[in-house]
Amino acid sequence: MKATRQIEVSLIGKNQLTIPIAQNLSSQLYQVSLYYRNDLSDKRKLSDAISMIEIADYEEELLERLGLFSRNIVVCSTNDDAINRKVALMAKAKGVKRVICRLESSSEDETLQKQGIEVFSSYMSNKISLKRFN
């Protein structure tokens, strides 16, 4: 039987958006890790198939040591646009091929887009989905 190569996906932030994504991606195709700050009140446990990495802060040296920048895909989706932007730029600069960044204040970030970083807004996605019902 041929071994299937797993796609390594890391999610930054533990919240109402990243938890369902991590749970849905967890399969033989994806190896999922979730990085989150230890000051969060969200203590939900996830599947053992998801690597949970609790950190003090999103510092470049720490994230590099923990292997974040060696992943195939990095999704920055904390509830703080500044953190998402900072980590997305770090990941791209360190050579991560696909970086996805959540920005709620503005999805029109030219700096990120020029770097090849995909930008999304959960608010805008929900707004577009709801328009289908009109």
Automatic annotation (TrEMBL):
Domain annotation RCK N-terminal: ranges: 13-119
Domain of life (superkingdom): Bacteria
Annotated InterPro entries: NAD(P)-bd_dom_sf, RCK_N
Listed Pfam families: TrkA_N
GO biological process, one term: potassium ion transport
Protein name (Swiss-Prot/TrEMBL): Cation transport protein
